[in-house]
Amino acid sequence: MSSTSFESCISRRSTVATLALATGFAWVLGMPPTVLAAEKPAAKPLAVYISVDMEGIAGVVTADQLGPQGFEYERARHFMTNEVLAAVRAAKAAGATKILIADSHGNGESLLIDEFPRDVHIIRSWPRHGAMMAGLDSSFNAAIMIGYHASASSPAGVRAHTISSATFTRIAINGHDVSEGEIAAAQAGALGVPVVFMSGDNVATAELRDRIGNIVTVETKKALSFHSAETLTPAESAVRIEAGVRSALTRVAEFKPYTVTTPVTLEMSYKNYAAAEIFSYLPGMEKVGSRTVKYVAKSIGEAVDIIMVAESYQPDVSP
Questions:
Q1: Closest CA to 185 of 169, 174, 172, 196
Q2: What is the CATH number of the domain that holds 149?
Q3: Of 26, 80, 155, 265, which sits 20 to 30 A from 276 (CA to CA)?
Q4: How far apart are CA 152 and CA 243, in angstroms?
Q5: Helix (H, G, I), strand (E, B) or coil at 187
Q6: Are residues 192 and 308 in the same domain?
Q7: Is pTM beyond 0.70 here?
Q8: Distance CA 150, CA 186 (A)
Q9: To which H or E segment does residue 198 belong?
Q10: Per residue in 117-133, pLDDT tens?
């Protein structure tokens, strides 16, 4: 036997002896031998929150698709449901074990919930704390927005508005105008949850990226006017959303929560003079323009609750 072979043999015997000795100690201690092996920490379960609106869905361009009285509303519900199902498939493929969806359009009953997997939970109807992000908490790893649209202050964008096109001409947080997407991202950020994906028209996606960072987005259509767009087909939009959500969730650690400074200065500009006048009578509410009121909230959550009260109150008065 060569010296090299002899050394190799000794090394192998030494390794076997060491393992045997370790195993013996393990049994003496009353533990199975495998306990001595290094254990990998269990991966944190992936929990995904999905908030969905309708104005940013592929094919949706006019009011007759957005409510129960519209002739194409039922078809738009299918378009919307299929885009959310695409996001759900992607989340499950990425390993999500918890998925919560907030139906956040119109009456909050637009999604066809019988088409969803049994283990998905869906928030429906109003009123609810948290508005479009109701039910979100710090247990979620990522937030996703499907079918979102541009803000009321945007010069373009299909059906661009913030919270209610019938009520507000502008909503601002800490001095700058915001979209529903930015408000939702700030709500998520306050809980430590990053927004990782958003779909909507080209104006809406660019607007949100400009505000909260370079998240993954999918353009479902290119805005031509408030009521017109060059749109993807519903089938193609669903394919792109599925791919985009899956991409975002595979690198969820790269995205950071979006936060706003507190206290939160909220400004709401109404279409109606009377609403601004009436709300200025509330304690803490200040009238700062003919149609604008200001409120300083201790948190983004409180600011959103104030917006919900203001949007829900509809005085039947014209200036």
A1: 196
A2: 3.40.50.10780
A3: 155
A4: 29
A5: helix
A6: no
A7: yes
A8: 16
A9: strand 195-201
A10: 999 999 999 999 999 99
